[in-house]
Amino acid sequence: MLNQPPLTNLQARDINAVLHPYTPIHKLQTNGPLVIGHGKGVYVYDTQGRGYIEGMSGLWCAGLGFGEEELIEAATEQLRSLPYYHLFGAKGTESAIELAEKLKEIAPVPISKVFFTSSGSEANDTQVKFAWYMNNAMGRPNKKKIISRVKAYHGVTVMAASLTGLPGNHIGWDLPVDRVLHTDCPHYYRFGKDGESEAEFVQRAAQSLRDMIEREGPDTIAAFIAEPVMGAGGVIVPPAGYYEAIQAILDEHDIIMIADEVITGFGRTGNWWGSQTLGMKPKTISAAKQLTAAYAPLGAVMVPEDIYQAYVDHSAQIGSFGHGFTYGGHPLGCALGVKAIEIYQKRDIVGQVRKIAPLFAARMEKLRDHPLVGETRFSGLMGAVELVADKKTKRSFDPKQGVGMGVSKFCEAHGAILRAIGDSIAFCPPMIITEAELNELFDRFEKALDDGEAWVSKEGLRTPA
Ligand SMILES: Cc1ncc(COP(=O)(O)O)c(C=O)c1O
Q: Are 301 and 284 in contact (CB under 8 A)?
C-alpha cells in the first residue's frame, strides 16, 4: 500500500477532537483524515491544495457540485431576511410553503402534503411513525410491521437503522428493533442461483415476499420501504419487472409502498425520480440530499390526500399531531430547496443526466474486462464496480483484506474520490459533470484499479484464507 506521509497540523487536531461517522476509528488514529478545504464545480481541494474529482457528490448529494453562486445567493438572501423559523403550532414560512408547492408539482404520484425534516433518516423515521399513526387512525392497531430489504440503506436513527439491512448498522448497536422485517435483496449477480434467469429470480423474490407476508399475517404489516436503486448497499439496480411483481403483492394485502428517494430523487437516474425509472408506484415518498443540492440539511416526507385525511381525523380525535423537528423545514434549507429545483428545471438537469448517462454506461461496461472486476451496475449517473477475487466463480475477497478500501485509497492518490462499499466502488458524480470531467474520473479510476491489481497480486490476496 501507499506510504503514509507525516500528519499535518489539521490532521493531528482532528484526531484529537473529532469522532468521525462511518470510519474505522482505530485506523484514523494513525492515518488521520483527508481534510477538505474548498470546492469548485466537480472538484474538491484538500487543505494542502491537492484537487480531487468528487466522484460521489460527497454523500450522493452535492448534485450541482461546489461553489454554485445562485445557491449561495439564495442562502444569503434567506439568512438576511429570516435566518430561522419553524412550522410548529400553526406557524408558517414563505420558503416552506413555496418548496412544498414545488414538490407537489414535481412528485411522481399525486401528493397532498409535505412534512419537512432535517435529514433522510428523520424522513424515514417519520414514514414509520406516519404508517403507525395512519393505521391507528383507520382502526387497525395491529397493522404495524414494516418490511425492508437485506442491503437496504434508510439511515441511522434507531428506526431508520433498523430498516437498514446491513449488518454493520445492527451489530454492536442492539438493532434492529422489533416490527421490522427484511426480505430478499434484488441483486441478481450475487443472489441469483446457477442457471436461474433474471425473470425467475424476480419471481423467487416476489414469492419470498409473499411467503413472509403470509407467515407474519397481512393484517400485521403496514408498509414496504424501498430505495428504487439501492445506494449504500452497493448500488443495486433490481432486474426488470421486480417492482411490478412486488407492487401486485402489496396491493393484494393493503400494504403501502414507501419510496425512499433520498439518493434517487431530482434527476439522479435520468428521471426526476427513481420511482419513474424503475416502475415503482409508491404511496408516500422520502426525499433529502439533492433536495437542496446538499447546500443545507433538509428532508421531506410526501403524503397523498387519503392518508392526510386519516391524520386529520385522528388528530381531531386524540387532540394532537405530536411530531416535528426543531429544524424540520428550516427556512435556509427550504430556500435552497426552491432554488435547487429552479436550477434543475431551468438547466434541464434531467436532460443533462440523460445526455451523459450513455458515456457513464460505456465507461462502466469497459471496466468489466479488468481482472479485478466482477460486475459493474448503474442507473443514470449512479453506479458501482464490484471487485472480486475470481471473476469466473464470482468469489469475493476476504473482507478482512479490505481490497475495496485499498482501491479507494489508490483513487485518492490519483485525484478521485470514490466510495468503497465493502469491495464495491460506488460512483455518483455531480450531475453537472462534463464529458471531459467524466472521462478524467474514469481514467483516474482505471489507474487506481491497475494499482489495486498490482497490490492484490503482490500480496497474494486472491489466495483463499
Ligand atoms: C436511501 C437513503 N435513505 C436515507 C438516508 C439517510 O439520510 P441522512 O444521512 O440524511 O440521515 C440515506 C443516506 O445515505 C440514503 O442513502
A: yes
Taking the centre of ligand 1 as the mean of its atom positions, its distance from the CA of residue 437, in whole angstroms, is: 26
* Whether this model's pTM surpasses 0.90: yes
Separation of CA 155 and ligand 1 centre (Å): 5
Give the residue, out of 262, 286, 379, with the most ligand 1 atoms within 8 A of its beta carbon, to mutate for a pocket test. Answer: 262
Q: Which residues line ligand 1 (CB under 6 A)?
A: 59, 119-121, 124, 153-155, 227, 231-232, 260, 262-263, 288
Q: CB–CB of 296/333 below 8 Å?
A: yes
**Residue 290 alpha carbon to ligand 1 centre in Å:** 11
Longest dimension (CA), the chain: 69
Per residue in 317-344, pLDDT (tens digit) is 998 899 999 999 999 999 999 999 999 9
Q: Cα(424)–Cα(237) distance, rounded to whole angstroms?
A: 14
Q: Is the pLDDT of residue 4 over 80?
A: no
What is the signed CA dihedral for 349, 351, 354, 356, rounded to 10 degrees?
Answer: -70
Cell output for 465: 484464507
- 377-426 pLDDT, tens digit per residue, is 999 999 999 999 999 999 999 999 999 999 999 999 999 999 999 999 99
Are 117 and 123 in contact by the 8 Å Cβ rule? The answer is yes
DSSP alpha helices (H): ranges in 32-184? 57-60, 69-81, 94-106, 120-137, 158-163
From ligand 1's centre to the CA of 160, what distance in Å?
A: 9
Determine the Cα angle at 219 with ends 215 and 225, to 5°.
80
Task: Provide the strand spans (E) within 293-439.
Answer: 299-303, 373-379, 382-387, 416-417, 419-421, 424-427
For residue 59, give the ligand 1 atom closest to its CA.
Answer: 14
Amino acid at 188: Y
| 451 alpha carbon – ligand 1 mean position (Å) | 31
DSSP bridge partners of 427: 383
Q: What DSSP character marks residue 297?
A: -
- CB distance 291 to 300 below 8 Å: yes
